[in-house]
Each structure stands twice: as C-alpha cells, then as structure tokens.
Amino acid sequence: MGKCINHPDRETSFMCMKHNIYLCEECLKCRDPEIHCKFRSSCPIWFMEKRGGKGIDEVPSAEKKIEYKILFKPDNKEISIPEGATLLDAALAADVPLNASCNGKGSCGKCKLVLESGSGKSADTPLLTREEKANNYVLACQTTVHSDITVSIPEETLAKKLKIAGMGKEVTARMQGLVQEISPMLQNISLELTPPTLDDSISDLDRLTRGLSKSGCDVSRMSIDLKVMRELAVAMRDENWKVTASVTRKSCSTEIVRVVPGNGQERSLGLAVDIGTTSIVVYLVDMADGSILAATSAHNRQAACGDDVINRIVCAEKDGVKKLSRMGLATINGLINEAIDSADVKRDRIDNVVLSGNTTMLHLLLQIEPRNIRREPYIPSVSAFPILKAGNVGLKVNPGAAVFVMPGPASYVGGDIVAGLIYTGFHREAPMTLFIDVGTNGEIVLGNKDWLMTASCSAGPAFEGGGVRWGMRAEEGAIEKIVIDPKTFIPSLSVVGDSLPRGICGSGMIDLISEMLKAGIIQQNGKFKADASHPRMTHDGDEKAYILAFANETSVDKDILFMESDIDNIIRSKGAVYAGFKVLLNQAGFDFSMVEQMIITGGFGQYLDLDKAVSIGLLPDIDRDKFTYLGNSSIAGAYMALLSEKYRNEALEISNRMTYIDFSSNNQFMDEFTSALFLPHTNMEDFPSMKGKF
Amino acid sequence: MGKCINHPDRETSFMCMKHNIYLCEECLKCRDPEIHCKFRSSCPIWFMEKRGGKGIDEVPSAEKKIEYKILFKPDNKEISIPEGATLLDAALAADVPLNASCNGKGSCGKCKLVLESGSGKSADTPLLTREEKANNYVLACQTTVHSDITVSIPEETLAKKLKIAGMGKEVTARMQGLVQEISPMLQNISLELTPPTLDDSISDLDRLTRGLSKSGCDVSRMSIDLKVMRELAVAMRDENWKVTASVTRKSCSTEIVRVVPGNGQERSLGLAVDIGTTSIVVYLVDMADGSILAATSAHNRQAACGDDVINRIVCAEKDGVKKLSRMGLATINGLINEAIDSADVKRDRIDNVVLSGNTTMLHLLLQIEPRNIRREPYIPSVSAFPILKAGNVGLKVNPGAAVFVMPGPASYVGGDIVAGLIYTGFHREAPMTLFIDVGTNGEIVLGNKDWLMTASCSAGPAFEGGGVRWGMRAEEGAIEKIVIDPKTFIPSLSVVGDSLPRGICGSGMIDLISEMLKAGIIQQNGKFKADASHPRMTHDGDEKAYILAFANETSVDKDILFMESDIDNIIRSKGAVYAGFKVLLNQAGFDFSMVEQMIITGGFGQYLDLDKAVSIGLLPDIDRDKFTYLGNSSIAGAYMALLSEKYRNEALEISNRMTYIDFSSNNQFMDEFTSALFLPHTNMEDFPSMKGKF
Q: A134 in helix, strand or coil?
C-alpha cells in the first residue's frame, strides 16, 4: 500500500511499474485499471500492478551478512555477495551484462538464469514456463542467494553486440559536408615568446597573455585556474620560452586550461558521444579535418538498472546518482579505450568533447539530481550547461578538455533531439516538417525556420522489446523483417546478424502485425480471428498466440510466440505516437496534408518498412515521398557541434526557441489516443490508402 | 665550491648568504669582496662567505635512520627525529618557535639552545662566546642528534608575541572613512521563486537565473560549477522555493558559487589579511557596515625557513613550495580561529577575503612557483590574479568565498605596496609624494595622480635585527629608544613591553647611532673614537664595542653590546635606502626639494624618531612637517579593497600604471650608495640642518 501521488490522503494498492508511484482508482481511468493506468494522459500504457504492504523505498537494504560466491558461466566471472542479495545484484557487481529491462521488479522476465549448483530462494513468477522451471530456470532479480551458487546465462539473456544505426558512408558524408569551418572549443596555440629581461620583466602570465594576444587570441576576458598558474613558471622555461597554451572559448570568456613546454604541433582529437538510454555511440574525430578515426558503440551499462529513463531515475534515487554516473562513464570510457586503441592515438590529445543524450541521461552522467524529471511538473535541474572540463566530468581524456553538453528544452525533449535538428537542418529551411525520434519515448518536433513546437509521448517499451514476451532490441538474433504467406500463415523471417532467431525487435513487430492483419490472422481491434486449431496458432493459458518460429528453428530451443497481449501493447505504443502527431499539429492549427516532409530518426527507424508502419497506423497516411530516414541524428549533430562553433551556438538557439507542449495536461491527447487504439485507426478517413483492404 | 650564477663556466668559493648563490670574483666588485658583494647593485650589503666543497643543494637529505627523542624545555614539547637531523629540524617538526633568521646556515647565531642532557655533534662556530660554549650553549642548526636529548630554550631565542603596528583607533577611523559604499565580491542574494508548473516548466537553473535577474543581478555572463548544479534541485525545493544564492562578481563574469535553501539573512563576514614576511595580520570584518569585529596577528610560521624572502624561496626550492604554503596557511588559519572565537561568529559566514603581501609571500601561499623571483631578471609567475575560491587556496572559511589577491607590479614591489597606496591615496592627488615601506627590502614609490614610479632596494636584515649581534625584531624586550648622556656615555633605554632588555630593534639602532654620533662616541665614518678604556667601551677579539646594557640590567644575564661591524651594517642599510630615494628622484628629473610630502609606512616606521633618522642619513633632510607615518598600510588597503569594488579596481589600475625601475642594472645607484656610506652623508650639502653638528 502507498499514498496516491496525486491525492496524498488516499491509500492505494496500485503501483505504476514504470514510474514506481502509487495511484488511486480515480487516477486510473483507462479501460483496464488492473493492468494500465492514466497517470499522465501522454502515458496511457504504463503497466500497473497490485502491490502488497511494501513500497519500493521501504525494501530494507542489505546488511552486513555472510558472503557467498557466485560463479557466472560461460565467462566464469566470480563475485562474493552477502546472503540475501539477489542474483541480479551479483551480476551487477560482477559486471555481467544481463538484460534487466524492469530494473529488478520481476515484471519483464528478461533476466533468466539457469541454476547449475547451489541454492537460491526464488519468488514464484508467471514469467517462466513450467518447462523452464523444471530445467532450473530462475529470474535473477527474484532469486536471493543463500549458498555458493553457479549459474549459466542462457542465450536469450545475454546482452549482445548492438547493430549500430546511422553510421553508414552516406550519413558520414552528409555530416562532414555540413561542416564548413572547423572551430573547436579548445584550441592549442603554439607560441615562441620573447625571453624576459630587466627591461621587460612582466610576469610569466602577462607574458603568456601578451603572446596569445599577438597571435590573435581575444584576451580581454581571459581566466586561468590556480593549478595552471602554479605550473606556469616551469612550463614556460622548460623549452626556452616555446610553449603551447590550450585555450577554451566559452560563451562569456576564454580560459587558459593548460600550458605545456614546446611547440610540437601534435594533432588534436575530439569525441562526439551519444548517450542513449539503451546504447552509447562514440566517434573519435581528427579536429584538423573532421575525419572520423574510429566509431564504437556498446550497450549503456545502466541498462542493468532498467530499460527506460524512469527506472534509471528510480535507481538513482535508491542507490545514488553516482552509481548511475559510474555505469555510464564506464561504458563511455570503455568505448574511448576501444577507439584510441583502434586509431592508435594518444588519449591526452583528446581536447574537445560533445555529449548528446536525453535530459535524464545527461543528468545521470553529470551526477546532477534527476528526481524531478519524473515528478509533475517534470523539471530538469539544468537545461543549458556551461562548458565543462573532462576531468571534472570523469571522462578519461585530457582532463582539461572542453566538454560541450547539448542543451535540451524540457525534461522529455532533450539534447539528443536538439542535436537531431542540427543534423537534419529543417529548422533552417522553409518546408513545414514533422520530425520524430521513436524509442521508449517518442519525441516529436513540428516546424520550420520560423517556429518550432515539440512534445513527447510515452511510446512505452514495446518497440524496444519491453512488455512483449519475445521482444528484444535490434541485436543479433532479433527478427527484424517478416512476410507471412496469407494462405499457409507461414512467415519468412529476416534476422539481425543472419543467425537463428531468439526474439523479435520493434521493426519486426510492426511487420508482423501488418502482415497478420493483411493475412487475416488478426482483426483491426488486434484480436486473433484465425482458427485456434491452425498449426501456427497456440495459446498460453487463456491467451491466444501466433507461433512465429518453432523451437527447432530458433537458437533458444523454444517456440517464439506472439501473444494477444503483445499486439495490445504495440497498438498502445503506436496509438500514443500517432495521437502525439495529431495533437501537436492541431495545436499549431495544422493537419497532415500541410506537412511537407516527415523526418524519422533513431535506431528504430532504420529497419522500418514505411508502408507497413502506415498500415498499422504508426505513421500518417501521407505521400511516401515525404518520408526521410536520417539514422542516428543525435550522434551526427554531436559530431557537427564538436567541429563547429556555429552549430554549438545554433543548438543553444534552437533549445531556446522550441515551444514545449505538455501532453500530460492535455485532454485532447487522451481522446486522440483512444481513437488510435485500432488498426490502423478508428477513423479510416485518416488512412485513405488503407480503405477496403481488410 | 659552486658555479657562478652569472657565469656557469666559472667555479667559485664565494657564496651570497642572502641569495644562497655562488658568485665569481668579477661579480664581486664592491670594496670588500670577502664580506660584501655586488651581485645586484641594489643589494650591496649581502653577506658573503667562503665555502668549502659543499653547495647548499648538495647537502644529503636525512635518510631513514634510528630515531631519537628530543625534549624542548620549558614547554616540554617532545618529538622523535632521525639520527643526524639537526636540533633546528627537531624544533621545526615539534612546532617550537625558534628564531632562525638565516634558515639554518649557521650565519645568524640566533637559534641558541642549552643542551641539558644527551649528546649532539656541534660544528664549531664563532657566533657563540667562550662563556656560552662552557655553559653548553649550541646553535640548533649546527648541532646534529645522536642520542635522546633534552634542551632548554634560552630567553633570547624564544620568538615572542609581536607588537602590532598600525592598528590604533586613528588608523581604523581613517580606513573606515575612506569606504563610501560597500560592494563585496561575493553577495548573498535571497530569492523567493515562483514554484514550477506544467505551464512554467523551465529548468531549476533557468528559474534561479530568472530570479537573480529580477532582483537586479546581471546574468548575461553567469557561470556555475558542476558541483553547484548537482545540488541545485534539492537546495531549491528544500524550503519551498526560498533560496539564497551566493554570487561572485568577477572582472569578466559572475559566478553562482553556492545555493542554499531558505531566506534567513545571516550577516556576511569578510577577512582582510596582510601576509608579511615576518608577521601576519588578520582583520575580521562585518561586511554590512565595515566594522572590525576582531584583529589578530602572529609571526609568520615560515620564519623557521629564514627571515627574508630569498631564504623562503630557497627553502621552497629545496623542500617544495607546498611546505611554505602550509606554514603560511597554518598561521592564517590559526588567526582566523582566534578571530572567529573572539567575535563569536560562524566560520562559513566568511564569504569575502582579500590577501595582501609582497610578491614572494603571495606566490608561496598560493603554491605558485617562486624560483624566478630571486633570479635575474627577477620574474614573478603571476602579478595580477583572478578572483579565487577560498577552498582552493586552503583558507578555513566558506570554501566558495571569493578571494581577491592584491596585484603587484614586480617581483620586489608587490601587492602590499599597492595596498599601501590604496590607503594613503596620494596616487589620487596632486602633491608630489615619496612613499617608503622599510623592512628587509625598502620599497619606494614616487609620484602623484599623474604618474607613479617605483623601485626596491635591498636594505638588508639589519633594521629587523639580522646581521647585528644583539639585533632583534620589535618584540617584547627590544630596546626601541635610546638617549645617551654625552658626558657619561650612559644610555637611557626604552624597552618594548617595559621589560628588561634582551636585544635592540631597528628604531633603537637608529637612535643609538644618532646618539653615539652626537655624543662623539663614533665618527662620521662609523668607527669608534671613544677611549677604549671608557667603562662603556669594550671589545670582542679585535673588534671594538659599546656596552648598551650590563648583564645585570638585562633579562639574558649578558652584556648587550653594539659592535663596530653592527654600525657598519646599519650604515649600509640606510645608505641603500637613501641611494634609492636619490636615484628614483633623479630618474624622474626631481630632487628632494620638489617632494611635497613623504609617507612612511610599515612596522619599522612606528617607533622611528624622525630627527634621528635624518641625522644618520636614512631619511632626507627636508621640512619635518612633510613627513607622515601611516602604520601598516598593507592591511589598511586590504580592508578597503575587501569592502569596496572601487578600490579593488583601483588596485589593478595602480599596479598597471606603476613604472618599475630596476636598480640592479643601474650604475648610478652604486655611486649614490657609496656616497651614502657616511653619517649622515659624504655630501653634507644634502643635510644642511646637520652641518657643523659633529
């Protein structure tokens, strides 16, 4: 039991599993309050559950207890952990990458392990099949440790190497073409100073400043740290008055951040970093010509604390924001190591960094208090950041490197979207544009060079594999494309990495629903109409399911099923995005016919079949030529800002001029959402090209 | 043997004991190269000695050895120290305040101890009398430890409480009267912010900035540290959007240095600190009205590393600048403790600090490399400092407190002189003024509102007690005023603290020489003419001496003598200062008759008898009404800058417009110095009022 977040006088047993907050019945107005909620009308699909006496914050933390050893196979990582801790705690401590989408709440069923020896106490869960339980499968987060234990990680639980979106030659060429002039924040200026004499006995700092001024540097608002002043005398004399000063240009001043002896012109490097909730991408860039020396990416290690930003914030509130920051930094610093190894360059030559990401990711990384992002009225601590120093942030590069953090206009429209605009450039042009970046949240921007409006709708975790039994991210083994034979209902599958399938990713789900609708396996309301006796149809308990792949066709030796509830979740996700389009257009007095181009960005869009996305009502039924897919626009925008002051200034300017529309206080959104809970839509006038096809 | 600092190819055995540098014969051009040198012509009285094989830097540092216990009486402080360390090392480690003017070189003879038990090895020294040696006197710096030892500290070795110059009511009133408007660097601004709503959902930082802007704060160039951003969300909500922001105004920007919940207006405090080479003075000031809540002072603990700036720099080169910084900070933080205890205020309310001091003292305190200050062409690392944070400096006040460091135009004309000008104010007015601050160095400023010239001449340690057998600082027991009966040669003595005498301070020496000259005990060349058989006359070896006090009239039970070599040293000191006046005037095309006022500042000036100072040729023979004594002008100027932005800006402006004349490359200075080695001067035309008096 807990107190309703909106009505603190009311006790309630309903808890939103995404927000980790309690809600009273009145606040739960959608059609199935046992499962869904309407805490924010923009977030109609958040999962609800009845809870017992203990709120999330009341769970006692582990005390000092007997420690047990946990061995993880197949990598044989071992860790000691106190009695009573969970296997998920052990995996986190051992740095074993597990899927744990729901942050240990036991609701996603992703963190499956096989107990090989030793004993744990597992809470009963409906998320494991009878067969799995018989084969010693447990959920890591639901199993506490009471002896030394050996576990193996089954195929489907391993977090594998990501496919990275938007890093092709075309994107790189477009990106580089957009940078006309390279103007880094931190510049290394080599000087040959006149040695002092009795007649020219100004201080070392004044001599340096005079030299900088002569070389064209604006020294009127120059600042310098005590640390740099302390080492100045030695640095300036060490190579006979030849020095190289690193100077950072900030918005209101310039700062001398480093002075080293000598004039050797080593090349200066930069990093563009996109901190996604799911994955992190790092570009290592030669600042002289903008060439990309290495591009690396990895899962954000914070994923062990949950799939979405809300769970990450909850985790930060429980364990401290430093923990999440460490996890993010560990991922980024690992990628930096990979990049400098592959390009064979020196770490301390990295002098400029741009960080892009959503508001929560940037708060967590910088250890800035994130708790108000998830609480009405959803306030970030900081939206525009001053230029920081890499050493203070914790990045393993030159400690004085200048770090530009992409500004973001709101808690749910962050720096990644601003970076996206920088790359797409539609805010510099006349055509009326609708921009969408779909992940767990769908961020939408509408506008052109004259004005920009933006909003965020909670698409839910379905497109990224959450809340869908065999859902997964677009990793190796994910089914990404499907064609179903309308006669036999037999699907042809494309799998990421051309391996045997082990799950289905977002674009696969859209294909699947579109194909099932076309083949008549499901109805427009998302319910199965195919004969339950068909060999491709099965059920789990009362719930019907379509067999996407039989056990012997998979790498997990189990049937991969698509449940009726999975379809329901996808419909809610696509409905929220479509309702977002409608309401934002409406606020501006527009409709879809007035949209001149539609830009889709983000990893999710890469494998998207436009026609099929329109056919299920995710995208509007407009001229297909108006659609453009532009890959990971966040990293591309970060790259551009890394090289060019013009784009850094533009980012601040865009962030300031975007009007943010909050859907959580918008009744029209709820109406539009309800209308969109149909395939493709209750109002078929919106989808003329689909008319009569079902 | 060592290499000449000017000619590294030449080996030499002459070492300057003040500079700790070797000089070849060519560099030793003054009349008595065995004793004196002319390394810089502005410094003709530095003591030289022939050295054996070991240079100062070649002395091996103590290795890990057996440790022995040293007990210091009368305070019973005990310390363990490795075998072979000196008793001075032990005193330093035990924080026992000893006089050690020469920084352990064995040349000043001040660090006398009495061995009570245990055995040490003492190098033979001419600085202890046969009687002293018989009574187990040793020099702490010349005695190494080879067993457990008990020593007692004789009366004359103890460093006692200072008399503090320039803190009277008159000075305070003048100082406070000069501050018209109080404008601190760091201001605490209390705000009552509008809580955020869905329609007003800007970030916390933007909300704070908006609030600051509304309250009249210029936010266009506002910066903020990552640390403050991290705590912003909590601080702003903790007392329901009532917050107090601490904002520091810098020259090129403003910075939010702290945000705390609540609006309680606690009083803000400030510190003015004068870091003298000998003593440190701290004023604790109420920033609301400028009232001085406490004034404390103490010996600079760095004195254990030598009396003058050169020895301090040498010590920093040997042991690291951090050691010297720690000693200075320990003194200041101790004084801060005293001040906050006596005023009963909270440490963290101290938000503003001004540090004044000479260039070396400021470098050492801030741990900025000082080595080039003592090497031609005498370059400081930094002469104008940005506003620092107290936490970074190491001051035990609010860590975000703004610290203004007094700028100084040259290595030997520092922030203390600029502070002095701020207080005297002659640079704002028309009268042609000669300003002098005499200590180990004599800093001279000439000018008015139109122009300012400055120079420094090395007065040597004599006025502060160095190089004079019974010389001491103006502490308790110092003879400060003397009148000699011309018939009996019997002196009447005034002693600081009205106690029995234990030595003679600078003003006493000037009185003494003037009186001896008048009474005919000495000639104008400084040699004794009194009959050697007179009861007041004696000798030590070949050297004649005047008996200033018989053993039974003293607190040290020994005759206090004034030697012929003491007179010689004083003549050199006064000669250097007078030559400084002459040359600086000459450079400007002036002579003494055109000087409209003469301002004397510094502790030394406080007890000075003007007529006697003129009679020995230290001060020029001008109308006595033109002289003004203005006490410790460095602390007064620091106080004014603490309260007023106008004076902080003025300090930077003065420092920039002072023209520094370097005497070390000036032949005229040497000629003037030689002419001034006479009482009062070889050219009696310069001293018309003295004509015919001897």
A: helix
pLDDT digits (tens, 9 = 90+) for A601-613: 987 777 789 999 9
Q: What is the CATH topology of the domain spanning B269-415?
A: Nucleotidyltransferase; domain 5 (3.30.420)
**Under 8 Å between Cβ of B256 and B235:** no
Chain B residues near residue A208 by CB distance under 8 angstroms: none
Higher pLDDT, A671 or A23: A671
Check whether B575 has a pLDDT greater than 70.
yes
The class of domain A422-461+571-690 in CATH terms is: alpha beta
Instruction: Give the model's pLDDT for residue A27.
Output: 60
According to CATH, the topology of domain A67-157 is Ubiquitin-like (UB roll) (3.10.20)
Averaged pLDDT, A514-530: 94
Q: Determine the pLDDT at residue A58.
A: 35
Q: Which of A57-61, A467-471, B137-141, B443-447 has the lowest mean pLDDT?
A: A57-61
Tell me what the mean pLDDT of segment B275-290 comes to.
93
Q: Where are the alpha helices (DSSP H) in B185-251?
A: 204-214, 226-238
- Helix, strand, coil shares of chain B, percent, nearest 5, are 35, 25, 40
Helix and strand numbers (H, E) in chain A are 16, 34
- Give the pLDDT score at A235: 95
Contacts of B393 in chain A (CB under 8 A): 226
Rounded to the nearest integer, the mean pLDDT of chain B is 87
Q: Chain A interface, mutation test: which of B256, B257, B379, most A Cβ atoms within 10 Å?
A: B379
Q: Does A590 touch chain B (CB under 8 A)?
A: no
Which fold would CATH assign to domain A186-261? Ubiquitin-like (UB roll) (3.10.20)
Q: Do B382 and A197 touch (CB under 8 A)?
A: no
Task: Answer whether A368 touches B (CB < 8 Å).
Answer: yes
Nearest to B197 among A198, A233, A377 (CB): A377
Is pLDDT above 80 for A511? yes
CB contact under 8 Å between B369 and A230, yes or no, is yes
For range B439-466, the mean pLDDT: 89
**pLDDT bucket at A33, cuts 50 / 70 / 90:** very low
**Model pTM score:** 0.79
Tell me the mean pLDDT in the region A376-399: 96
CB contacts under 8 A, A 649-678 vs B, are 660, 662, 664-665
Contact B230 A367 (CB under 8 A): yes
Q: Is the pLDDT of residue B57 over 50?
A: no
Q: What is the pLDDT of residues B427-447, one digit of tens each?
A: 999 999 999 998 778 899 999
In angstroms, the separation between the Cα of residue B360 and the nearest Cα of chain A is 13
Task: Please report the ipTM that was assigned to this predicted complex.
Answer: 0.78
A201 to chain B, any CB pair closer than 8 A? The answer is yes
DSSP string, B469-500: TTB--SBTTEEEEEEE-TTT-PEEEEEGGGS-
CA nearest neighbour of B57 among B25, B105, B106: B105
User: Tokens 């395939």 belong to which residue?
Assistant: A679
Q: What are the φ/ψ torsions at residue B565 (nearest 5 degrees)?
A: -70, -30
In chain B, CATH 3.30.420.480 covers: 269-415
CB pairs under 8 A between A and B: 160
DSSP characters for B119-170?
-EEE---TTS-HHHHHTTEEEGGGEEE-S-EEEE--GGGBPPPBPPTT-SHH
Which residue spans of chain B are classified as CATH 3.10.20.30? Answer: 67-157
B197 beta partners = B200
The residue of chain A with its CA nearest to that of B256 is A386
User: Between B404 and A159, whose confidence is greater?
Assistant: B404
CB A22 within 8 A of CB A3: yes
* Cβ-Cβ contacts under 8 Å for B652 (sequence gap 6 or more): B384, B407
Among partner residues A207, A233, A369, which is closest to B232 by beta-carbon distance?
A369
CA distances from A381 to A652, B206, B229, B610 (A): 17, 9, 7, 65
